[in-house]
Design goal:
The protein is mostly beta strands and 652 residues long. The chain has four helices and 57 strands. The strands form 13 sheets. Strands 31, 32, 33, 34, 37, 38, 39, 40, 41, 42 and 43 form an eleven-stranded antiparallel beta sheet that branches. The longest helix has 14 residues, at 13-26.
């Protein structure tokens, strides 16, 4: 027996199916034992096969997009006219004398009243520094203690690598010098309303300023047919833009871009019987309000009944360029394009059809994270999976009278839990725990910090406490070998100044594969609407972040205490020899520790032929299951306790 087990490969699904069939002939108890063993040894998310692998064997390449995604590399010196601007920040409009120095027209930047930012696109690799001079207007009145300039160094994925605050006094020129290694963009804010100037900007090392170039053609791939106006329907904040726009210094002529802002939606009619590809380019406008959280752009292919067939997802951020984007439209009636974020201007160009299929668009599923120098890198709150009363902060606050900016902290409360999910981690996680000064007298806070390895075993546990009016208390833990850093809040804490030294693969902005995955070779994905659901079970309307994976909207069953789902196996077009899938606790539901789902194959008399109990555990990614349906008339799933997701459901 031991010899046979040593040759058995649970990831070889042909062997798995033979094992199940053999177990079914031996008896129910043996079958359950085999299935439980398979669940225990087969961590599933990375072994799920996309249905498209068999459906589109010839789709081996990307669509034939041509032309650059960003402006051309230019000089190292940066004039004011090389920046993009928002609100009341602009290039100098006339020669000016400031702090005894002359700044020519267009050579520098002027901050008029603290409203707005300046953006400088950088060629990669930007190994070197960003250097500039900062001075107050000779007649300026300084407003409070806010810094005159705040420089954000933005790297791949929109992550802020680090920031620098700078101030000076009248008549004194301040030299700004910040490490720009790995930067795609330098975003400069002016928190102080005092009129000030930034000039003499330049990059050192290999960094080059990106200069403006025109859009190459329409932006569509070669051989594509443009989508006509009759095929487009715009809703909310989506429209053909009537002015010139720019994305990463590529200028887009009037009328060539569809602009999306929050809630923007464009529905495209798919030509009847089309088996091709809807293609386009997408990017963040150079005049968007800066955010360290990338915008999410989604293309959903829906059938005539409005059900999701497949989905492509792109993360769009300033400095990220005008990126190729596409989705296979086979079987679809419409493609719905949406801006699934609250902020920012997003531009789409070259919306067109290609007559052939291409490999699936690579939806984001992880981010390799860390500074090129190994130094500390800021981590945005959206990198964490939150549950209960833990949420990213959306307004500027103070802790111990020190500013903590929106999008840089997590606001916790009693029962709040937040987790940073990672693999291949080496280094340390740093943060501060404090209390918002506006919380009120007597407020206290604490956070239990637990570092878990990939088997959910604790590597480190400690509790950090603080109170209102006190400086932030440091959190500093090793993440080497870690899978999760979990913080459980009590009181009214603020977690801020989150940073990491070293490197890791973070699973923060994670999305499912474009098409519903299957876990049995040659099997077919099961539409959850084929189940009759009851009590606390429903078909999900959103994606769910799991541990190191994600479950696809409309293709996931979400159940909990007393939930049921029944699939009739007779009289359907589905094969019904075996049923498999993935199960687990969502990242936001890890606080439940354990969750169970019971599967029963029922005979024609309604009595169970065989039973399988799935146990979802805290800290584990989705696990794979498989059960024989031989002799069954229906399959019944029940959820006796906590919330467990069932997805990648497959029949063979």
């Amino acid at each position: 027996m031991a010899r046979a087990n040593s040759r058995f490969d649970p990831h070889n699904l042909a062997q798995v199916f033979l094992a199940i069939s053999h177990a079914a002939r031996i008896g129910r108890n043996t079958l359950v034992l085999v299935l439980v063993m398979l669940c225990a040894v087969a961590p599933a998310a990375r072994h799920a096969q996309a249905a498209s692998a068999s459906q589109h064997p010839a789709a081996l390449s990307d669509p034939p997009f041509t032309g650059p995604t960003s402006g051309a590399p230019g000089p190292q010196a940066a004039l004011g006219t090389d920046f993009a601007f928002t609100c009341n920040v602009q290039a100098t409009q006339a020669p000016v004398q400031v702090a005894g120095m002359q700044v020519a027209t267009g050579a520098g930047i002027v901050n008029i009243d603290g409203c707005g930012m300046a953006y400088l696109n950088v060629s990669v690799p930007a190994a070197g520094h960003f250097v500039a001079k900062l001075a107050l207007d000779d007649a300026a009145t300084v407003a409070g203690t806010a810094p005159l300039a705040r420089v954000f160094v933005v790297g791949p994925g929109g992550y802020v690598l680090h920031t620098l605050d700078a101030s000076t006094t009248k008549g004194v020129v301040k030299q700004i010098d910040v490490d720009a290694a790995g930067a795609l963009l330098l975003a400069i804010a002016f928190p102080n309303a005092a009129k000030s100037y930034l000039f003499g900007a330049h990059l050192t090392g290999s960094g080059l300023v990106r200069t403006q170039i025109p859009l190459s053609g329409s932006g569509a791939p070669a051989g594509a047919s443009p989508v006509t106006s009759a095929q487009e329907h715009f809703e909310c904040n989506a429209h053909i833009f009537s002015e010139v726009r720019s994305v990463s210094r590529i200028t887009i002529p009037t009328g060539k871009a569809i602009e999306f802002t929050s809630c923007g939606k464009t529905t495209v009619q798919v030509p009847s019987g089309s088996t091709g590809t809807l293609a386009m380019r997408v990017g963040a406008s150079d005049v968007s309000e800066f955010t360290s959280v990338p915008m999410v752009f989604v293309a959903r292919v829906l059938d005539s009944g409005g059900h999701l067939l497949r989905k492509s997802v792109g993360l769009v951020f300033q400095g990220g360029g005008l990126q190729p984007f596409w989705v296979n439209v086979t079987g679809g009636a419409t493609v719905v394009l949406t801006h699934d974020s609250a902020r920012g201007y997003l531009e789409v160009v070259g919306l067109s059809y290609l007559p052939t299929q291409y490999k699936l668009h690579p939806n984001p599923d992880h981010h390799v994270f860390g500074s090129p120098t190994g130094g500390p890198v800021s981590i945005v709150p959206e990198a964490f999976a939150d549950s209960c009363n833990a949420n990213p902060g959306t307004t500027d606050i103070t802790v111990h009278n020190q500013a903590v900016l929106r999008e840089t902290y997590i606001y916790g409360n009693d029962c709040g839990v937040t987790s940073l999910i990672m693999t291949n981690a080496a280094g340390r996680f740093h943060a501060l725990l404090g209390v918002d000064d506006a919380s009120g007298a007597g407020k206290t806070a604490s956070a239990k910090v637990t570092v878990l390895d990939q088997n959910a075993r604790p590597l480190f546990t400690s509790t950090v406490r603080n109170a209102i009016g006190m400086p932030g208390v440091p959190i500093d833990v090793s993440i080497t070998g870690a899978s999760i850093v979990k913080l459980e809040f009590s009181g009214v804490p603020v977690l801020y100044d989150m940073r990491m030294t070293g490197h890791a693969t973070l699973y923060d902005r994670v999305f499912p594969p474009s098409e519903p995955p299957v876990v049995i070779h040659g099997g077919v994905p099961v539409n959850p609407t084929a189940f009759t659901v009851g009590c606390n079970t429903h078909v999900s309307k959103q994606d769910f972040l799991m541990i190191h994976a994600a479950a696809l909207e409309q293709w996931t069953l979400d159940g909990q205490g007393c939930g049921t789902a029944v699939l009739n196996l007779k009289g359907t077009h589905f094969p019904h020899h075996a049923f498999g899938g993935l199960f687990g606790l969502a990242a936001a539901d890890q606080r439940y520790k354990l969750g169970h789902v019971q599967l029963e194959v029922l005979g024609a008399n309604g009595k169970p032929l065989r039973t399988l109990v799935l146990v979802a555990r805290e800290g584990y990614g989705p696990r794979r299951f498989l059960i024989s349906l031989d002799g069954g008339s229906s399959l019944r799933m029940t959820w006796p306790d906590q919330i467990v997701k069932i997805f990648a459901m497959t029949l063979a």
